[in-house]
Amino acid sequence: MTTTRPPRSRPRPAHSLVTVVGFLVAVEFASGVLQGFYTPIFSQIADHLSITDADVNWFEAAQLIVSALCVPLLARLADLVGHKKVLLISTAVTALGSWILVLAPSFTTFLIGWALQGAYVVWLPIEVAIIYRRTAGTGRQGVLTRRAAGVLVGALELSVIIGAVTSGALVESWSMPALLSLPAIVVTACLLLIWWGIEDLPGTSTGGIDWRGYALITASLGLVMTGLIAVRLDGPGSPVPWLFITAGLLVLVPFVRHSASIEDPVVDVRLLATPAQWPVQLTAFLFGMSVLGAQIPLSTFAQTEPSEVGYGLGAEASFVSLLVAGYVIAMAVGAFTLPLTSRWFGARGALILGCLLVALGYGLFLPFHDSTAQTLANMMVAGIGSGALVAALPAAAASAAPPERTGFATGMTNAIKTVGGAIASSIFAIALASTGSLGEPDAGHAPLSGYLTVWAVCSVSALVAAACLLLAPKHVFERADEVEDVLPAV
User: Using DSSP, how many helices (H) and how many strands (E) does the chain show?
Assistant: First the structure.
C-alpha cells in the first residue's frame, strides 16, 4: 500500500513579500551607508589624497552626472531583461567603485571610483518596481508597494546615520584605506544577498535599447551639467557656461522628436507627457532641489560664526553631524508613517502633505534662523515631508505607468530628482558666493540674503510641486487608495 504525501502548500504571498522586502532592506542599508559614511570625513579624504577641500566638490559633480545618465539606461534595461539582473549589475558597478576608493593612489583614480559609485542611485526605484511586480494580482498592489517603499526608505535613512556615526568614530584611529574598505565590504555583501535572495523574473518589455536616444540625452545632460559646473567655477558673468547650457537645451529638440517617433525609446517622452505621469515626475524634479541641493548650505550656515558676520549658529562640525542626524531621523519618521498618512489622506493627499511640510520647513527658515532650536525644528518639519516624498514618489510613478514600463517610470523619479538637485546646487552656489563665483571661497562670507534665497527657493519649489499634484487625474491614485490594516500589509 502506498501513500501519497499531501501537496506542499505554497507560502502565502504576504510571507513571500516579507522575505523579498527583507533582502531589499539590506540593499537600502548599503545605500544608506554610502550616503552617510563619507560626509563626516571629506576633509580627511582630501588630506589623504593631498588635495584641497575645494577639490572635493568635483566628486559630487562627477557622481551626479553619472547618476543622472545611468538611470534611464538601467531602468530600460530592467524592463527588458528583468529587475534582478539590473540590480545585480548596478550593485557590481557600485562595489567596483567602492573598492577603487580603497586602492586609489591619486585624485583622478578616486574621482573615477566615486563616479562609478553613482550607479547606486537606481537601487530604490528598481526595488520598488520589483515589489510592484511581485504584488501583482494581490488586489492591493498600490498599498503593498507604498508600504514596502516606506520600510525601505526608513531603513535607508537609519543606515545613513549608522554610516555617518561609524566613520566619524573611526577616522582618528583607522588608516584611510582600512576605513574606506568598510562601505566596500558592505556593498560586496549586498551583491551576494541580491544574487541569493531575490527571484529572477524575466523582463516584461520587448524591443531593444535606444542607443541613439541615449546618446542624445547623454549629450544634453552632459552639456547642461558642464555648463552648471562652469557657472559654479567661473560665475554667471562668463559666457562659456551659458553656451554649454544653451547647447544642451537645444539637443533636447532632436531628442524629443526622435523619442516620440520610435516604439521603445530610452526615455519615453510620450509617457512622461501624459497627465498621469508629468505631475509626479515634475514633483520629483522640484523635490530634488531641496533634498539634494540644500544640505550643504544648511551645513555651512550652521558653522558660520555669528560674532563675525552677524548670522549663523557657530556650531562645530561634530554638532552639525547631530543636526544632520536629526534631519535624517525625521526623514525616517516620514517614510515609516507614510502608510498611515496615506490611509488618512489618500495616496495623492499624502504626497501633497509631504510637499507642504517641505515648503513649511524651509519657509520657517526665513523668519526663524537665529538659534539651534529654531534650525533643528525647521529641519525636522522639512525632514518628515522629505521622507514621505522619497518613499511615495516611486510608488506613485509605478501606479501611473503601464506594467511593462514600471521600471522606467520609477527610475525616472530618481533621475529627474538628481537633475533637479544638480541645478539647484548650482543656483544656490551662485546665491551664496559673495564674489559671484565659488572659485575663490576665501574672498568673503556668503551674504545672509544668499541663504534666504536658498530657503525661499526650496519652499516655493515645494509649493509648486503640491500644486502640480492637484492637476494629476484622480484615477491615477485610485489603485493606491485602498484602505487596509497596517499589520497584514507586508
Answer: 19, 0
Q: How many CB atoms lie within 10 A of CB 415?
A: 29
CB burial readout 441-473, b (16+ within 10 A) else e: beeebbeeebbebbbebbbebbbebbebbeebe
Contact 283, 262 (CB under 8 A): no
**Spatial separation of the C-alpha atoms in residues 412 and 117, rounded to whole Å:** 18
**Angstrom distance (rounded) from CA 278 to CA 287:** 14
**Extended strands (E) in 371-415:** none
Distance linking the first and last C-alpha atoms of the chain: 44
Backbone angles phi, psi at 381, to 5 degrees: -60, -50
CA atoms within 13 A on the CB side of 385: 29
pLDDT of residue 462: 95
The half-sphere exposure of 6 on its side-chain side, counting CA atoms within 13 A, is 2
Is 234 exposed, middle or buried (CB count within 10 Å of its CB: 0-12, 13-18, 19+)?
middle
Q: What is the DSSP letter of 12?
A: P
For residue 196, count other CB atoms closer than 10 A to its CB.
8
pLDDT tens profile 416-467: 888 888 778 777 767 776 544 444 444 445 678 888 988 999 999 999 999 9
Rounded-to-integer distance, Cα 385 and Cα 358, Å: 5
Q: Is 3 left (phi over 0), alpha (psi -120 to 50) or beta?
A: beta
Residues 180 and 228: their CA atoms lie apart, in Å, by 30
